[in-house]
């Protein structure tokens, strides 16, 4: 396992090793590249929402490893459009603003696919800096994951966020499922074993304990 690779999903996945006959080795990559590595067989597995494209080259465990929190919109409170963001009541109200996301983010594409101006970059940290510099107006993301990244890069207290549950139906984009490349030996057998481990090991108490590490 590579050192300094941290996160809610990583900690949850590692807990599964107690029931499985193997351990997980985690490598951090920009998300678009990570997907390409699984597709081409350089990497074996990932954990993410299921999409038609990802199912083309990967098998997924039916049981989610975790379900993300209600997504939020992050923005600079000193942005000239901050009041417009706070008062928005429809998705279309954001179409005159500049959005940002990271490359390969299917959740963003599903919700904001018709948005006329979206900037894509490799890393979330770049998006946060773009928000502070006024290059973009908002970023749509999970508040726990993004809040942890904000703390890690020393930007606590500099950005504001508002919940988006009232505007967006998010069920399909928040379920993070274990997926393994179809070309992996006995891939279905591995998926079945992982799914059973998820159901047996990731209890509400364990899930709560791990999430609390990142609050």
Total tally of structural domains: 2
Largest sheet: 5 strands, mixed
The rough form would be described as globular
Helix and strand run: HHEHEEEHEHEHEHEHEHH
Which assembly state applies to the chains in this document?
single chain
Structural class: alpha+beta
Kindly provide the name of the CATH class of the largest domain.
Alpha Beta
Strand content: 15-25%
Question: Helices and strands in order, then pairings?
Answer:
Layout: H1 8-15, H2 31-40, E1 45-48, H3 52-57, E2 58-60, E3 66-67, E4 72-75, H4 82-87, E5 99-102, H5 106-112, E6 118-121, H6 124-133, E7 138-141, H7 143-152, E8 160-163, H8 171-174, E9 175-181, H9 187-201, H10 204-212
Parallel strand pairs: 5-6, 5-7
Antiparallel strand pairs: 1-9, 2-9, 3-9, 4-7, 4-8
How would you portray this structure in words?
- It is a single chain.
- The two termini are 24 Å apart.
- The protein folds into two domains: 8-67 and 172-212, Periplasmic binding protein-like II (D-Maltodextrin-Binding Protein, domain 2, 3-Layer(aba) Sandwich), CATH 3.40.190; 72-169, 3-Layer(aba) Sandwich (D-Maltodextrin-Binding Protein, domain 2), CATH 3.40.190.10.
- It contains ten helices and nine strands.
- Helix content is 40%, strand content 17%.
- The model has no long low-confidence stretch (mean pLDDT 92).
